[in-house]
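User: These chains co-purify. Model them together.
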Amino acid sequence: MAKTRSDSPEEMVQKLLAGDRRAAARTITLMENQSEKNNQVMKLVYPHAGKSMVIGLTGSGGSGKSSLINHLIRRYRDQGKRVGVVAVDPSSPFSGGALLGDRIRFQAHSMDDGVYIRSMGSRGYLGGLARSTSDVVRIMEAMGNDVVIVETLGAGQDEVDIIHVAQTCVLVLTPNMGDDIQAMKAGIMEIADIIVLNKADLDGAILCLRSLEATIQFAISQREDGWVSPLISTVASAAKTEDLQGINELMKTIRDHQEYLHESRAIDEVQAKRIEQELGLVFKDEVQKFIFKGLKGTGKKRQYIKAIFEGRTDPYSVVEEVLSTFLKVGAKVNETSGSKKHI
Amino acid sequence: MNRDKIKVIVSKVGLDGHDRGAKVVATLLKEAGMEVVYLGMYQTPEGVIRAAIDEDADVIGLSYLSGEHLVYTPKIVNEMKKSGLNDVLLVVGGSFPPEDVPVMKEMGVDEVFRGGSLTKSIVDYIKKNAREKG
Amino acid sequence: MSQGQAIKKNIEGACDVNWDDYLKSYYEKPQSAKTWSGYEVQELYTPDDLAHKDYKREIGDAGDYPFTRGLHRNMFRGRYWTRREVVGIGSPADTHERAAFCFEQGGTGLNTIADVTYEMGLDADHPWAKTEVGLTGVNITSVKDMETLVGDIPLDKVSWSLITASTAAAATMAQYVVVAQQKKYDISCLRGSIQNDPIHFRYCGFRPACPLDLSVKLGADVMEYCTRNMPKFYYTTVNMYDLREQGINAHQEVAYGFGIAMCYIDELLRRGLHIDDFAPRFTFYVSCHVDFFEEIAKIRAARRMWAKLLKEKYGAKDPRSMQFRFAVHTAGCSLVPQQPLNNIVRIAYEALAAVLSGVQSLHCCSYDEPMCLPTEKGHLQALRTQQILAYETGVTNVADPLGGSYFIESLTDKIEEEALRCMKEVEDLGGMEEAIRSEWLDRKFETEAVKRQKEVDGGDKLIVGVNIFDSEPETKTPLGVQRITEQSAKQQISEVQELKRTRNVGRLREAIDRLRDDASSRKNTIPAMIEATKVFATTAELLGTVREVMGYPYDPMQVIESPFK
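Assistant: Joint model of the three components:
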């Protein structure tokens, strides 16, 4: 590979903090590739992160999230805020490729220095998408973006995890989703702070609105924090001036939710939860990496798989056994020198 | 493990509305295991380069069908130079006279795929040459 | 190495022919017995395949309902088809010159095509237009450009087809009428047609110019205006061809094309017109792709389906309302730049299919289209292809010469059946407007296009020079390359700027105010556009004013603001 990316973590972070877009882009690639430098970089990034408003937008493909985000970018830019967007689109499981970022970049802000858009596909490594998204959002924060928008498809637990990085979670639905809405409400409805019925000019929008209201009532009754998730109708795709009312309302509701978070001090809890999740993700990822690294070259992983395959044991017993060995060694190291080199 | 996937920007530039080819190629590159950021129509040369920077792309793929390739290609190449994207592969596809293929290569395009190109030839070329430049 | 390559290689070194390959080639048979659209066909068709058919009711003679066999009993004995070539190149003056050339060479119809800037509704001096004016057609910014384009061409004699498909067709209509009136023509005598199918044009990259409600509104304004004032003018050419070029198959072309046509018909009926007032001037643009019999069957099926649709669904009484009038455009997407002269042969087969299916008006592609805009030589070759068909081959003597063929009739039935199934699918979604709004149709086009490419990649669809019998890439275009000089564009842009500086702003504002009022009160906008055009309102000003009333940004590209605020 001729592409040289030889900057040290310190140099990279210094450059991205100074607003070098290319350095930022390459740092994000490191996160996606789960490079060796990853932790070193994140340690340097972390102190500069955490000051942004993070909004999650989740909804199935074709629900018009990209158009909505376009409108939001424009509004926040009008307010003079810098905006970062992380568009997450997991890979197709068959080929591993991904078609990303369709239609987010309308020419209106394609050259705006205050906008940074990055598309991410799952690169299939151990930590999964949730970990890398969490890291990338931190990088976007450190870059000095006042607002960071995370876009996801909202399918599966992995994506519910992703959306936990957001302080305000917006769920985007469309009238023509039909039964999908019923299927979706289980996981995501509960964590949505705002629900948007996009393309409200489509036939069936009224019916959909009514059925949603009932569903929301139920979801709200499950919430402990007392926030009542509003339902907003938008037409993001049509580009009509009159359709912008819905967007205005969405902007206002996001502000309302942020105000609510700050006034009720619920923001502290949201941030704490995010850190808890971050910690969990990094733990899971690093412990797994640490253990697999330890097993590497010993032939043990293969032996375990063989044993499980032949019915002599099961994954649970194996993990228990491995953990007890490794954690004992790990604990000993910590007691003695605190250096990982001895492991 | 699929580390370091090739990332490709696929875009059209200007007003030309023939986007079927660009979309098909984007989809097929994706199916070949690449990460494709499809920018669609009405992009400016500057906008394409900005996206290539922010996305840390390995390849820029442009599609022209209305004779605008000689207008926009020099602008794209110039913007790439200005932004230091000398390690990014520039691939062009669409309708052009064969006479213009060497002209575009002279301008700085790495490879040109005319209509009728089979997907395999495009995929093979990108897999072989992405990240080998610069 | 494909078999084609192997043979070629061996023939080059004639002394060491691989005779095993030769034998393989000698006994080679077609890989597939499917049509281009994927229908399985039998080895042989016999009278049994038609045994159940009621000839009079289901097929009928040419000239009789349901018009399966053609619109006229005598077909080409009454009149040849109109031999058209699409012209649009550089400035209005350049385009006029090329049009005149086509007439000199025996062309009988004139098609002038708008460039991307005009279709988007941009004036030549728009920031996005400056680099692209005249590159792919002609831009008409003001009535002056239309005057130049028309020149001395006799509008009452020539059948002029104005190819502006987008919402800009409303501006084209106004500009054309103004020039005709200035030249003292009675507009009720004008012949020819305007494409005016803005709904479909969103799929050709002009979505910003063609939002659905605006497309229906302005499209129907032109149709209604012509119905009331220009009874000899064909006010729309619903463009099934462009849909086909997206990669869909034969029956989808018919089904989706009819779906869009019905959007306009429904709107005209809502406006209080009777179906027989306007349907006789409804026309279509159809593709002729490379699968010979399939295309003939497709057109025959379309004719029968349209007749039934108009009679049964819309209650038309006038037989002319039930006639599926169509022009054919040979399939641009069937042409490839590899071994380009082969395109001449493809175009000829496609044109033959069009003629055998009873075409009213034909445009043959130029062989050089996959490489550049048509050269003069390319245009001429395309026109000559039509002339050879008309004057040498004898295919014009008999109406629907393939009618009654066991195979053709069966294939016609098959396509009708598939197309009806497709139309039902759209109906179940809530109709074509719904299929468009929900982007169902976009997804359809996208998946079909990928499927087509995979068929070529996998060798299921063979294209000579591409995936079989390929050879070293050419380094030269055989008959030269068409180039557009920047000079034409610069000239036009400076003329537009000059016009905008010197016109009477007071009168212009009054005219724009009237247009805004008419649009606000849902009146037909064409009369006000005509008045505004007379005082030099430009294309972007006419369209932008109506766009704003409909709630859209003045400029589709959202760069400039209305100068009338």
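Chain C has a mean pLDDT of 92.
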